[in-house]
Amino acid sequence: MRQDLNAKVNLFLQCLETCDFSRARALCTDRATVWQNDGNGAQGIGESLEQFKVFAADVKSLRYDVIRRFHSSNEVFQQHVLHLNMVGGSFEEVHAVVYFRFEDDLIERIEECIYTMPKAKAP
């Protein structure tokens, strides 16, 4: 089961990387919710994917680099860095921790906390 959850999280992230939002949505329950630390509270997975779609319009490519991952029978918690190659040529990194809860092998809840890394000081 644990390996299966890891594979499902990997597939969900790959769907986001390739902007395959309908396939990402199919990996979630009908009532799946997403919470982010942006102060807006939880929202449905459809609304969250629509926002990600708008965000991705300014991105030439994106890639998730999973730093570490922990799991139990129906939960996955991971730390990752989202590497963004923007349309205008700039590069950005978004650091986050994400919790996935599963119900009947589908994602039922996502909680994401995005955090900024302090800039390195010049010598």
Features:
123 residues, Nuclear Transport Factor 2, Chain: A, 6 strands
Strand content of the residues, in percent? over 45%
How many strand elements? 6
Strand order of the largest sheet: 2-1-6-5-4-3
Give the C-level CATH assignment: Alpha Beta
Instruction: Note the gap between the termini.
Output: 48 Å
User: Percent range for helical residues?
Assistant: 25-40%
Number of helices: 3
Q: Tell me the number of structural domains.
A: 1
Radius of gyration: 15 Å
Describe the sheet with the most strands: 6 strands, mixed
Quick structural overview:
The protein is α+β, with helices and mostly antiparallel strands and 123 residues long. The protein has one domain: Nuclear Transport Factor 2, Chain: A.
Overview of the molecule:
The chain is α+β, with helices and mostly antiparallel strands. The chain has three helices and six strands. It has a single domain, classed as Nuclear Transport Factor 2, Chain: A, CATH 3.10.450. Strands 2-1-6-5-4-3 form a six-stranded mixed β-sheet. The chain is globular and about 50 Å long. It has helices at 2-17, 21-26, 45-56, and strands at residues 28-36, 43-44, 59-71, 75-86, 91-103, 106-115.
